[in-house]
Amino acid sequence: MEQREQFTTRLGFILAAAGSAIGLGAIWKFPYIAGQNGGGAFLIIFLIFTFILGLPLLLAEFTIGRTAQQDAVNSFKHIAPKTKWYGIGILGMVTCFILLSFYSVIGGWIIIYLIKAITGGLNGLSSQQYASVFEHTIANPVVSLSVQFIFILFTIFVVAKGVQKGIERASSIMMPALTILFIILVIRAITLDGAAGGISFLFQPDFSKVTSKTILEAMGQSFFTLSVGVSVMITYSSYLPKQQSLPKSAFSIVGMNIAIVLLAGLAIFPAVFSFGLAPDAGPVLLFHVLPTIFSQLPFGMVFFVAFLIVFLFAALTSAFSMLEIIVSVISKGEQAKRKKWAWIIGIAIFIFGVPSALSYSLLSDFTLFDKSFFDLADYTVSNILMPFGSLLIAVFVSVKMKKSALFEELKRGSKIKYSVFHVWFFLIRYIAPILIVAVMLDVLGVW
C-alpha cells in the first residue's frame, strides 16, 4: 500500500479541519436559530456547550484518527480488531453521503444568487419581490439541478487532487479569504445607523427568553457546527503527523469556529436591526432578508456578493470533508484510485440528491413521513445520525481505548497535564453521552 498522505503543515490541517466545521451550520443556521432564541442568551449557552461537549468530542475524534492513521472505518478496526465498532465509520460515511446530497442543493442556491447578484438580477427589488425570487428560483427544476451539479463538480475536482494538492491547498486559500471578507462585511454592518440594536441583541443576553428548547438547540448546535459525529475529523486527523499537538489543533479549530460564528452574527444582526426587520426570519434569512437589506445600501450589492462568496467558500470547504471521508475508505488510501472513486462517489451523491433538489418543484407534492425529500434528509442527518454518531464515538473512546494510551496520544507534541486530561476524559465518558441522549430524546419528541 502506498504511504498515506499527510498535511504538509499544522496550519494546513487546521484550516482544512476548520473549513469542514465552518460551513452552513455556522453561517446559515446559527444566525437564524440565535435570532429565534433570544440572541445573546443563546450565544452564551452555545459557547458553554461548545467547550463542554463540542471540543471534547472533536478531541476524541482526533485521538482515534491519529492513533490509527487510517481511514474512518479501518481506524476502528485497528484500535478494536475483531469487533463491530468499525460500524461507526460506516455510519459516518452514510451520514456524509446523505448530508452532501442535500447540502449540495443549498450550495447550488448560493451559486444561483451569486450569479444573479453579479449580473444585476437582484438590484432594486422590494422585500416581497426578493421573497418571490427565492421561491421561483428553488421551484425551477432545471436551474436547481444544474447549479447543484456545478457545486458537486467543484467538490469532486478538489477531492480528486488529494489531501495536499486538493483539500489543503483549497482550504488555505478559501479560509483566509473567507475571514477577510467577513471582517469587511462586519465593519460595514456595525457602521450602519441603528446597528447598536443588533450588537446589543447579540451580546446582551435576555435570559427571560430562554426555554428548554433554547438550551437543547444550543446544545445540538455546539457539535453540529464542529462537524463531529460523522468521523470527518477522524479522517482529517489521520493525515496529521505524530509530532503535531492535538489539543492545540482542537482549540485552534474551536476558536476559529467561534470567531466565524461571532462574525456572522455581527455581519447580520446589526444590518437586520438597522432596517427594522425581525431577526427571527428563519432559514430564509440569508436568501430573503439580507438581499433586502443590502439593496438599500450604497454599493450594497457589492457587499452582498462578498457575503455570498464567503457563504460559498464555507459550504465548499465543508463539502470537501464529506466527500473525502467516503473516498478515503473506498480508495483504501491509494492515490491511483482516488480520482476514479472521487468521480464515481460524487456523481452517485448528485443522483441521490436529485429528489432533494426537486423537492420545491416537480416533487413538491410528494412527502414521506409528512416531509419532503429535502426536509427528510435534513431531519435524518441532523436529528438522528449525527447525534447517534457522536454518542457512539464518545462511548468508543471512553470504553474501548485504554486511558493510558489516550493520554500518551494527547501528550505527543503537547504539554497537556494529566489533570486537564482527566477533565476531558470525564466529559467524554459521562457528560457527553448524557447531553447527547438528551438532545436525541428531545428532537425525537420523547419528552
UniProtKB/TrEMBL annotation:
Main location: membrane
Topology within the bilayer: Multi-pass membrane protein
InterPro entries the UniProt entry points to: Na/ntran_symport, SNS_sf, YocR/YhdH-like
Transmembrane parts of this sequence: 12-34, 40-64, 85-118, 138-160, 180-203, 223-241, 253-277, 297-320, 341-360, 380-399, 420-441
Localization in the cell: Membrane
Alphabetized CDD domains for the sequence: SLC6sbd_Tyt1-Like
PROSITE patterns: NA_NEUROTRAN_SYMP_1, NA_NEUROTRAN_SYMP_3
Pfam families: SNF (PF00209)
Keywords from the named record: Membrane, Symport, Transmembrane, Transmembrane helix, Transport
Record PANTHER family: TRANSPORTER
Family, similarity comment: Belongs to the sodium:neurotransmitter symporter (SNF) (TC 2.A.22) family.
Protein name: Transporter
